[in-house]
Design a protein that fits this description.
Length: 299
């Protein structure tokens, strides 16, 4: 169960979806269960799979549907719901269900590109270094994430920034086209924009990132206040994302990039912490997944 799913919401949405469609409901019970379910449901001939949960559930379903004809239709049921909102669905689950029904009626569907991180697909982004350390701290206290919401993310960012862990984060970033950063403390590879939402406010790191483009990569050499605060302020107010200047990179049209370090560094994939690594290979996966879009979406 994701953090904003209630029994009443599930009943309302179930009745709406079942009114004109054959509907089967399955509850996941363990990590990666949704991936195995999605793979089996595709083999059983289902047309659309609707992950009703957070971004982690969407990611699991997407990994089960790679290269298939079964479409994914994300229904927001988590605390932030980055992917569903990024492609145009309302953040309210009941409103999103209405938009989904309209999209199904109109056949609003696209074939989307994804990214991969050491072989696992991601639908909206991978965060490395400081970003991942913050996410890991958030996920270690799951109940606080549910009840404190974005305030807990902010508090976790402050605590991570003041920790010794932040000062030890160092890795290189090398794109296949030759662009490189010798030493960075944070990097984000985006498949879509925004990076995340602070309430209703999108945090735009790379507005050009979309379902039909290669990846975009942003990185900061340092997460000292002199770099981090201006970067965050720019992402909140700019329509061009982070600039490409000294100490900060913004690369678009990236088909492959490798991050390495002589010590393990943390990374998170679609908001889910992963085991630290010394090498991380990110790649663009063109035409990897069929996705239901809100009828009015331009993505």
């Amino acid at each position: 169960m994701a953090s904003s799913v209630t029994a009443r919401t599930r009943v309302v949405i179930q009745k709406a979806l079942a009114a004109d469609h054959e509907l089967r409901i399955i509850e996941t019970t363990r990590s990666n269960h949704a991936t195995r379910l999605a793979h089996q449901l595709d083999r059983d001939g289902y047309d659309v799979i609707i992950p009703f949960g957070g971004d982690g559930t969407v990611n699991e379903v997407a990994n089960g549907l790679l290269g298939t004809t079964t479409a994914l239709a994300p229904l927001p049921g988590g605390s932030t719901n980055v992917f569903a909102r990024a492609i145009g669905f309302p953040n309210d689950a009941v409103e999103a269900a209405g938009a989904l029904l309209q999209a199904l009626d109109e056949g609003s569907i696209t074939t989307a590109s994804l990214g991969s991180a050491n072989g696992r697909a991601f639908v909206f982004h991978v965060g490395v270094g400081f970003d991942a350390a913050v996410v890991d701290r958030v996920e270690r206290r799951g109940p606080l994430k549910r009840y404190a919401g974005h305030a807990w993310f902010v508090a976790s960012a402050v605590r991570t920034w003041s920790s010794a862990e932040r000062r030890s984060l160092r890795f290189s970033v090398t794109a296949d086209d030759g662009r490189s950063v010798d030493e960075a403390q944070i990097a984000v590879a985006l498949n879509v924009n925004p990076y995340t939402f602070l309430g209703s406010q999108p945090l735009d790191l790379a507005p050009e990132a979309a379902l039909d483009t290669p990846l975009s990569v942003v990185a900061l050499e340092s997460v000292g206040l002199a770099r981090l605060i201006p970067a965050a302020a720019t992402a909140l107010r700019s329509d061009t994302g982070l600039p490409n200047r000294s100490g900060m990179v913004h690369w678009s049209d990236i088909t492959g990039v490798t991050l390495t370090s002589d010590r393990p560094f943390p990374y998170q994939l679609d908001g889910e912490p992963q085991k630290p690594v010394t090498s991380l290979r990110l790649e663009h996966l063109p035409d990897a997944l069929r996705v239901i879009l809100p009828a009015a979406s331009t993505l």
